[in-house]
Amino acid sequence: MDAQLEMKLIECLDALAQGESLERILARHPQEAAQLRPLLETAASLPAMRREPSEAAKTQSRRKFMAQADLLRRTAPRKTMGFLPRFATGFIAAAVVAAVLGTGAVAASGLALPGDPLYGLKRTVEDVRLQSAGSPTQREELQREFEQRRVEEANELLDAGREGEVEFSGTIESMQPDAWIVSGLVVQLDVNTQIAGTPQIDRLAEVRGVTGPGGLRATFISIESADESEITPTPEATETPQATQTPEPAKTVAPETTTIPQPTTTPRPTAAQPPTTAPEPVGVEFTGSVNALNAGMWTIDGTSVIVNSSTEIRDTISVGQRVKVKALRLADGRIVATRIELSDDGGGGNNSNSDDNQNSNENQNNNDGNSNDDNGNSNSNDNDNGGNSNSNDNDNGGNSNSNDNDNSNNNGS
Amino acid sequence: MPAIERVPTSAIIDQNRSRGAIGYAGITSFEARMLTVQDELTLLARARQLDPEALARIHDTYYTSIFRYVSFRVGDHATAEDLTSEVFTRLLTALRDKNAPQNTLRGWLYGVAARVVSDHHRKAYRAPQVELDEELVSADHDPADIVDRKMTQENVQRALQSLTEEQRHVLSLRFGSDMPIQDVARTLGKSEGAVKQLQARAVAALARKLSPKVVD
Q: Among A205, A227, A256, B29, which has the highest number of CB atoms less than 10 A from its own CB?
C-alpha cells in the first residue's frame, strides 16, 4: 500500500467511523474505489464481530475478584514476631508438658501457630484443659474457645503469608467455584479438595488445609448436614449377629461423611460400602404393650421403636394393645421395626418370609435416624382406617422415599 | 457509577459511527462509560489500598469493555470470560507486588488483556498457523463474496494472528472494545494520527489476509 492510498484509507476510515455510508465514501474516490472497497468492507464488518458478556459471567467475575482482593488484604505483609528456636513437637512436647506446666513456655505457647515449635505444646495444653474441665458446660465453652483459636491461627498465618497446616470449623458464609468464605476466612478450592457432605451457605463446615503466601488452600472440607450436630459418627459393633434374618453387609449403616463424593442421593441396596467399617444390624423380636404411637416412633414397653415406610404393619394397632415386633437393632442401638402385628392374633412370627425381611432391611438402613413426621402420621392414620393394609403400605412407601433423600445424611448416634 | 448501556448488536455499528462523530468533539458516550483520567487516578490510589469499593468499581467499569476486547480475539465465549476474569486477577497481583499501573489504569488493563490473550493463543494455536493461509487463499471468487463468506469471527480471529501485535491491539480496541480513535490514542499513549495510521495498516493487512484479491 503506497503512502497516497494509505492517506486515502485513513480518510475513508474516519468517514466510516462518522457514519458515512460505504458507497458515498467510495464515490469520492473513483480512482481508488476498487482498491479501497475490500479494505473498507473489512473495516465495516469488524464491529459485528463484537461479543457481549453475560451478566452472570460479570457477576461471577466480580465475586471472584472481590474474594481474591479479600484474600490479598489478609495476606498483606505484616511484621511478625520471632519465635523460640525449633525443637521437636508432638510426642516430645507432650512429654514436656508435665515439666513445664505452669511455666513461661506454656504461656508462650499460647501464641504459637501451626508449624511453630511450641504449637504442639499449645494443643496438648488444650487437650489437658478439655479433659480436666469441671463440667460439660465448661468443656463446651472451652471447646468453642479453642475452635475460635483455630480460626485465629489460620488468620495469623495468612496475615504473615506463612505456610502451615490448619484445621478449623465455621459457618460457610459465601461460596464460589474457586473459593468459599468459612468463618470469615477465604478458603480456596482446587481439584484436589475433597468435599464431604452437601455444601450450602450457613452450614457448618470443618476445613483442613494449608496456608501459604497464596492464601489458604483446602485439602478437605466436611460439611455438616442440616440437622446434625456431630460430624462423623463411627458406629461401633456392640453385638454380634445371631438372628436368622441376616442382613447383607453391603447394605449396612456406613458413616456417610466418609463417602466422598456421595455417589447419588438415592440410596441403592448395592452401594459398595466397605463392609468392615459397617457393623451389621441385628435382627430382634419381642412382644410388648404399645405405650405411644408417635410420628415415626412408637414406644413399646418403654422402648422406642422406629416405624417407617418399610415397616410392615399387619393390623390396626392402637395404644394399649400388645404387639409382636420384628425389628433390627442398629449398631448405634436404635431399633427399627420391620414388622408389627397384634400379638394375640397368633398368625405372625413365622420366619418363612425371609424375602420380606430382606426388603425391609434395605429400606430401613437407608432410613435410619429418620424421625420424619410424615411417616408416623400417615402410619397411624392408616391404621385408624384399618383394613387395607396393602394400599396403606404403598402410600407410605411413596411418602417416605422422598423424605429419605432429604435426610440421607442422618447418622446421629 | 456510570450506567452501562446495553444495546442490541445491530445498533452498535450505527452507534459506533455516531459515537465516533461526537468523539472528535471531545465528549462521547464511551467516555461516560469509562472513567475520566482524574476519576481513574483517584480510584487507582484507593485500589492500591485494596479498598473493596474502588476495586468493585474498577471491575464493573471495565469488565464489559475488556470482555469485548478479549472476545474479539478469542472466539470461544467461555474462554473469553475466563481470560477477562484473569485480567482482573492480574491487576490484584500487580497491586500486591506494587507493580500497579502508575497512572493509566486503562492502558495497563488493555495491555494485560493483550498479554493474556497472547498467552492463550500461544498455548492453543501452535499448530494451525500453516493451514490458515491455505484455507483463506483457496477461495477464488468475487472479492465481495469472499469478504462476506470469510468474515466469520473465526476467520477474522485467525487472520488477526498474522498481524503484528500492535495492529491486533489497535483493531481490538477500536472495533472489539468499540473505542473511538481518541480513546485508543489515550489508552496507548500515542497521538491520534499515529493510531489512525496504525489502524489503516491493520485494516489493510487484515483485508489482505481475508481476501487474496486485495491488491497491495
A: A205
